Amino acid sequence: MNERIRAAKRGFEQSFASGTFYNRQTQDEQHLQQILALLPFRSGMHILDLGTGTGYLAFPIAEMHPEITVTGLDIVETALDVNREKAAQEQLSNLRFVTYDGTRFPFADGTFDLVISRYALHHFPDIRGSIAEISRVLTAEGCFFLSDPAPNEDDPERFVDAFMQMKPDGHIRFYTCAEWDMLCGERHMQRIGGFESRIRFPRKYSAAYDALLRQYPDAVAESYEIQRSGGEILITEQVSNLLYQKQK
Questions:
Q1: Greatest CA span in the chain, whole angstroms?
Q2: Distance between CA atoms of 86 and 63, rounded to whole angstroms?
Q3: Among 214, 224, 213, 202, which residue's Cα sits nearest to residue 153?
């Protein structure tokens, strides 16, 4: 496991342990329902939830669709142990959680009909390698859904990546829709649907954020609606929610 993946693992284990604050950062019922409405569910399919974390997508899908098998994959062992206990308590026999090293997925070629990933891919240090793995484990005409924040058009110098890297949780890079289309296209996956959303993301404030902001034009901070509120600093990010299908 390389150092960037270790950093992500450490950061997320700490975030999951923080409970309420992490939930405020990531949970959004409206967004969840939009995702569930877009995904092409069908009876008997096998779904991989990549970067599953606390199982934010995996649990509702498994509960709503007992005829579908859901596998959550992540590097965060402690969180997956909690997920397994929860799945057992809720008697979700169609849901399992698997840990891995952050690089090669521990599954055979063509195992899954659908791979999904929410708010995780910007932590992957070898994004092309990860997209190749997604394509490898998909069936011949399987689908891939991603939900991930994107840099906005007023941020050519990628302030947003520097902002997100202030927290030591392994953030690598946000990608534009065009970049996702290129990356997925390299693996013969074509976009077939999607939508845009927003996330208002709180971080614990430190003076280091002020120092970072002084390095960029005021218009950049304004474009992300940067605001300090008490002991927090908030940023608003556009989110790309994209559905791809593997082509023959």
A1: 53
A2: 12
A3: 224
Which residues of the chain fall short of a pLDDT of 70? 1, 3, 7-26
CA R_g for the chain: 18
Q: Do 116 and 57 meet the contact criterion of CB atoms below 8 Å apart?
A: yes
109-121 in b/e burial notation, b at 16+ Cβ within 10 A?
eebbbbbbbbbbb
Tell me the domains of the chain and their CATH numbers: 3-198+239-246 (3.40.50.150)
Spell out a b/e string for 168-187, using b for 16 or more CB atoms within 10 Å of the CB, else e.
Answer: ebbbbbbbeeeebbebbeeb
End-to-end CA distance of the chain: 33
Strands 95-99 and 227-229, by their bridges, are: unpaired
* Alpha-carbon distance values, 83 to 15, 88, 92 (Å): 15, 9, 11
The pTM assigned to this predicted structure is 0.92
Read off the pLDDT of residues 99-120 as tens digits, 9 standing for 90 and up.
Answer: 999 999 999 999 999 999 999 9
- Give the tokens for residue 10: 């450490």
Tokens of 150: 């994107």
**Which residues are bridge partners to 241 per DSSP?**
147, 195
